[in-house]
Design a protein that fits this description.
The chain folds into two domains: 2-205, Alpha-lytic protease prodomain-like (Up-down Bundle), CATH 1.20.1510; 211-321, Cation efflux protein, cytoplasmic domain (Alpha-Beta Plaits, 2-Layer Sandwich). It has helices at residues 2-33, 36-62, 76-105, 113-140, 144-173, 178-205, 211-224, 258-276, 317-321, and strands at residues 231-240, 243-252, 280-288. Helix 1 runs antiparallel to helix 2 (36-62), helix 2 runs parallel beside helix 6 and helix 5 packs antiparallel against helix 6. It has 329 residues and is mainly α. It is elongated and about 90 Å long. 65% of the residues lie in helices and 9% in strands. The protein is built from nine helices and three strands. Strands 1-2-3 form a three-stranded mixed sheet.
């Protein structure tokens, strides 16, 4: 877990360095061209810089070990960071709209577009590569803050491509009204990206169920299901930054002693760790089976069976989240 936190922090440091350098390059491109579309790119890069530092701090906090004041760790800091970043992206998009409208009403001449396009194209390429690295590492280590940084950098690249097309058309046609119109179009794309990041971060803060992770968990559990795992229910998965906290109730044969029941819990834990990584905290409550469990229990060596086995109950997202033991209707 500490290794993943260190990796996340290292990548985010590079995100910050790249953001600062590219911001300076885009400012130079805007100074040379006076293009509002290129200014759009530069304004979004200010958000890259700010959110990069916020993300860096949040990953530092999230990587701290748990203490008496934070028994579940500090992982929620990542969600707060992503929320701030999403908000800043939306604000940048709104500022771009204002600037684009102003340049439509009061047009200004553009200059040195060829040099500006070269600088912006270089910045866009670097942004995309850095964003891909951050997203891949964020997904691997289940870090929302790092993944949000990567998505922001790549959204910056997509807008850069559109802006280059627009500025290129101005360069070829001489119609300068294209410049603010392009900026206006991509401002809405930027706002939508900010909304997606903000929505995802608020879902994490509110402990909203991550259906994608739950579906993966259900699929995995069905694949590794043991005959001694008669029933599994009350499944809950909560994300704290890169850490997954999993709670569930596991039904085992009622005559198992404490050691035998714990062995089944260990099997379940190791299976989940193998599939989802080491950043897992699993809390399992063991239940003894009831007479109504017999018809769905496939255990063949049970010496206290009270009813014949009838059918296997397939575990689904719905019945695993239920707080009741499974039984045939």
């Amino acid at each position: 877990m500490q290794k993943e936190a260190t990796e996340n922090l290292g990548i985010q440091k590079w995100v910050v360095v790249v953001a600062v350098v590219l911001f300076a390059i885009k400012l130079l491109a805007w100074y040379l061209t006076r293009s509002v579309a290129i200014l759009t790119d530069a304004l979004e890069s200010t958000v890259n810089v700010i959110s990069g530092f916020i993300g860096l701090y949040s990953l530092y906090i999230a990587g701290k070990p748990r203490d008496s004041d934070h028994p579940y760790g500090h992982g929620k800091a990542e969600f707060i960071s992503a929320a701030v970043e999403g908000t800043l992206i939306i604000i940048a998009g709104l500022l771009i709209i204002v600037e684009a409208v102003r340049h439509i009403v009061y047009p200004k001449p553009l200059k040195q577009l060829d040099q500006g396009m070269i600088l912006v194209a270089f910045a866009g390429l670097v942004n995309y590569v850095m964003g891909a690295i951050a997203i891949r590492r964020g997904r691997k280590n289940k870090s929302l803050a790092l993944e949000a940084s990567g998505r922001h950098l790549q959204s910056d690249t997509y807008s850069t491509i559109g802006i280059l097309i627009g500025v290129g058309l101005v360069y070829l046609t001489g119609k300068q009204v294209i410049d603010p119109l392009v900026a206006l179009v991509f401002s809405f794309i930027i706002i939508f990206t900010g909304y997606q990041i903000l929505r995802k971060s608020l879902a994490g803060i509110m402990d909203e169920a991550d259906e994608a992770i739950l579906q993966q968990m259900v699929q995995h559990l069905n694949g590794v299901r043991s005959v001694n795992w008669i029933d599994l229910h009350n499944l809950r998965v909560i994300k704290y930054g890169s850490v997954l906290h999993i709670d569930c109730h596991l039904t085992v044969p009622w005559y198992f002693n404490v050691k035998e029941a714990h062995q089944e819990i260990d099997k379940l834990r190791e299976s989940i760790r193998t599939a989802f990584g080491d950043a897992i905290e699993l809390f399992v409550h063991s239940d003894g089976c009831e007479p109504f469990s017999c018809p769905l229990c496939a255990k063949t060596d049970c010496h206290v069976r009270q009813a014949a086995y009838q059918q296997k109950v397939e575990w689904t997202l719905k019945n695993l989240q239920s707080d009741k033991k499974h039984q045939l209707n």
